[in-house]
Amino acid sequence: MTPAGDSTPGVPTDPPESGPDVSKSQWMRLVEADRQSIAGELHDELLPYLFAAAGALASLQRQNPDLKTALEKPVQWVDQAREIARQIMNGAALPRDLSSGPLVAAKEFLESVVLRGDDVQELSVRWKQLDESADVAWDETQAIAVYRIVCEAVRNVVRHARANQLIVAWETAPTGWAVSIQDDGEGFESETVSKTSQGITLMRQRAEAAGLRFQIVGAKDSGTQVTVFGSP
Length: 232
Known about the structure:
By secondary structure, the protein is an alpha+beta fold. It has one domain: 2-Layer Sandwich (Heat Shock Protein 90). Helix content is 50%, strand content 15%. Strands 1-2-3-5-4 form a 5-stranded mixed beta sheet. Strand 2 (165-173) and strand 3 form a beta hairpin. The longest helix has 40 residues, at 24-63. It is globular, with a radius of gyration of 20 Å. The two termini are 28 Å apart. It is an enzyme of class 2 (transferase).
């Protein structure tokens, strides 16, 4: 994973300073509300135009066979734009059901949206101890934070790390639990980068807002490990 994190346009990335009116958990709820709003706008406002454009291009190709070749690229661009819009929409919205825990929900989302296609064929993904994580009585705020952090970290691996192996693991101990996302990709110097990366900053803020501890360790050409720690 590299430091180039992702964030959703329009979503506040800085949690409020602690005060009497707005807590960090309330900040995270506001972030989620903004993301849900963005997902709705994509579905209601953007996708209809993309589907209309795809239909118009298909009609032009049928009515003007001589334009079929010239329109192949625009058709491809519209199809790609529709797929990107779907991915953004699906990523912005929370899953309807988190009852099986955030790791199970993250796995379902990532395998259906992110971990598919030709660009991830060489990536071996292992999920460890997911059944155990599903048995935890999750606090809603912590479940949302873990879900978002896992999805963000895995997306970064797919997009930037050039990794061959990725492991998402759940571990427990008497002192608490941990969720780790580890890859063997290009890595980076975590001491110099983690403070300036927007994606890493947002993951850390989500963890802190939920009362969790966030850690990222990376080294050039030695991969990256993101870990979230929680109390029992």
